[in-house]
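Input sequence (206 aa), recorded before submission:
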Amino acid sequence: MKKRWILPGLLVAACAFAASGAADPGHGHGNGHFKGKHGKFGPYDVVTDDGGTCGNAWAVDTEKRTFRVHKNHDGSYTVLRTDRGTFLTNAGQSPGACETKGRHGSTVLAGVKGKFHGYLVGKVTGGTFDPNATCTTDCGFTDVWIATFFGPTATFSCFTDSKACRFDFEYTAAKHQALKYRHWFDKGTGAGTFLKERFRGDIANA
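Predicted structure, token format:
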């Protein structure tokens, strides 16, 4: 995977979100029932490496990230994270280079620019939600944000072996950059041993 969201410390783009009946980040992903009744937090400025299918950091993302919280009937909380920003590629393997299905490229040059947006949603159990918590640093990173607003004993389903996680990210490179592929999609459900991730397209020169 990519991003610091499916498992803390792993880079597979940035923290992806969705679980059990969740949420519309406003990007047309068809999850229009997420109310976020307990507040919107952010946007936070985040700069992070973005990992591709080969495990390499194919780009650096610069983005705005927000979190929304909704309390469930069972006492857990659904947390939706939405990301929107830009990427700048590193030279090397393209994000889809190691995908085994569909059409994709193999390499990308340094300096390719583009935009992306997406979401990650999962369930928080344990801990105590404090909507007035103060985040001192790195609060755009999901593990830091969860620990700050729910406490160190809280568990986020996208960081464990769980089916209660969903994510969807879309990348589009700017036109006129001599690209063979300029659209890449990364989406899936679950986390850890339940992870089912799907890719389509690529950001690639060759």
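Checked by second reader. The longest helix spans residues 142-150.
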